[in-house]
Design the sequence.
């Protein structure tokens, strides 16, 4: 396994910095992969998008939202 890892590392280091960053993200994400959590987040995102599109919730500009939060913290 050591030789395979060394070969992969050598090949990875020949990539551009952007390619190495993308590859690193893929590798890190593979360590934390939990299909149940990903599925739950996907469902939540779809629900929130549907709420906005149907008018169930009303969106406000970020500046207004931040002003409300700042006022509440005072």
Sequence:
């Amino acid at each position: 396994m050591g030789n395979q890892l060394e070969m992969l590392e050598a090949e990875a280091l020949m990539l551009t910095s952007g390619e190495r960053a993308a590859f690193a993200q893929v590798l890190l994400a593979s360590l934390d992969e939990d299909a149940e959590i990903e599925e739950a987040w996907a469902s939540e995102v779809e629900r929130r998008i549907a709420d906005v599109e149907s008018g169930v919730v009303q969106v406000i500009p970020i500046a207004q939202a931040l002003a409300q939060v700042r006022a509440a913290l005072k």
Residues 35-54 form the longest helix (20 residues). The helical segments are 2-13, 17-31, 35-54, 62-73. DSSP finds four helices and no strands in the chain.
